[in-house]
Every structure is written in structure tokens, then in C-alpha cells.
Automatic annotation (TrEMBL):
Coiled-coil ranges (or none): none
Domain of life (superkingdom): Bacteria
Name of the protein: Peptidase M23
InterPro entries named among the record's database cross-references: Cell_wall_metabolism_enzyme, Dup_hybrid_motif, M23ase_b-sheet_dom, PGBD-like_sf, PGBDSf, TAT_signal
PANTHER family to which the protein is assigned, alphabetical: MUREIN HYDROLASE ACTIVATOR ENVC (PTHR21666:SF270), PEPTIDASE-RELATED (PTHR21666)
Domain M23ase beta-sheet core: 60-158
Family annotation (Pfam families): Peptidase_M23
Amino acid sequence: MDDGGISRRTLLQGTVAAGVVTAVGGTAALAAVPGFYNPFSGYRVTGTWQDHLNRGSLGGIDYGMAVGTTLRAAGGGTVTNTPNNGTGGHTVTIRHDNGYRTQYMHLSRFLPANGTRVAMGDPVGLSGGAAGAPGSGSSTGPHVHWHMINPSGTRINPLTFLGSNPGTGLPKTSTEQDGVPGAVMWKRAQNWLRLEHGYTGPIDGVPGTNTYAALQRGVRGHGYTGPVDGVMGPNSWAGVQRLAAGWGYTGPIDGVMGPNSWRGFARFLNQDKYD
């Protein structure tokens, strides 16, 4: 056990203070709603913001994807579903706590009911866009259309917003300093696992079976050869320690997580690419 070890109960505990909206250059940033990210970064852009402007649209970004792809909330907020919203077809709107809204269009199916509170990464609908299909609006092929609306009601480019407000991603976890795992660390872990190891659950900082199964996949390259069953045991945690060893952990590989193990794991998770 590495020095200062903590119990499994403590491992699963840890809280994070709720974030607040901050101002960046006089503009309210989507800060700690909690968090904001591009949920479509793994898909090909089939229509740029400028493409939309060139054909008379108010703007948007199209991402090509198969009909029925799960669409996830770019940030926490409250859902409103609008069936057959003109050319946009079935449209889901997420109103964030600071007055910004994100909208996804051409859905084939709504998921949460109107008024449902969602966290970043929660499913909010299924993509559509097949020409002539219910909910597709004017779409001529499978894709999702994404844009944001600022508090004054102006449609804006979410990628420009992210570029102008780099702090709107996940915050760095303090676990790197204090060795105590908490919600921010687990959000970063879930985002890493979403990007690289097939995790499809919410980015909510509450690890469960799906998070742990993805974590087991994530440490396959670090000596873990057991089942991917979402049940973490010493062999699974030993894989995490081997990963942490590449990021400053120098303790034993004994499958018992303690502050030094968590610090090494957190250094790995605090890479900018997992924001």
C-alpha cells in the first residue's frame, strides 16, 4: 500500500464545489455548468459555419453521422424539445445556467422530456436527417446541425466560442496536488475514457460500472488482463498504478490506491487534451 493510503469508501467519495459563471472579456462564459465541450469532435464536419452563411442560413455546423447516433449534451442545462421546427425538423434546445443555449437539429428521436435537467455528456436525442424522414426538416442526408444562441438571442458558432473561451472546458483536478480523488478528477477520467476507450455515459464525476469498464479497457496497455466487467479489484487498480507510474508515481504496484497513486493518475488526466 503506498504511504498515506485511503479506504475504498474514501476512494468513491470526494466532492467538488459547484462552478459559477465567470466573465471573459465582458462576455459570460459557459463556465462550470459544469463544463462545456464539443460532443461531436469525433465526427466529420460536412457543413461549416461559413457554408451555412453562404446559403442564407443564420449559421451552424453540420456533422455527418448515421441515423440513430446518440447526441450528448455539450453542457449541463434544461432540455426543451421542439417537434418539426421548420427547416430544422425535430430540435432539442439545452438552456444552460448562464443564459446560453445550444441546439441540435434534424433529430430522429427525442430522449429526455421537456424540462429535464441534464449534465454534460447526457443523451438528449438521436440523430436523424435522412431526406424525407420524420423530424428531418429540410435535411437531405444523415447529420446533426449544431449551433449556440447567446443570452441576447444571437446565433453563434460554438467552435468560435470554445476557441475564445478556452477555460470553458473541464477544470484541472486538484487531485494532482492533494492526492484525494473527487468529482473533477472523475469527470476528467470519464472524458479521457469517452475520447479514447469507448465510454458513452455522462460526464458527471460519479464513477459507476460503465466508467469502471472503460477504465479497465484503458489500462489494458498497462498490464491489466482481467475481464472488462466494471468491477474494480486489485488487478484493475494495479493497471491504474502502472499508468500512474508513467506520470511520477514511484510506489508499489499492489492494487491498493493511495494518495501517491492518485497523484500520478491525476497528472495523466490533467493533460490539456482531456479538458
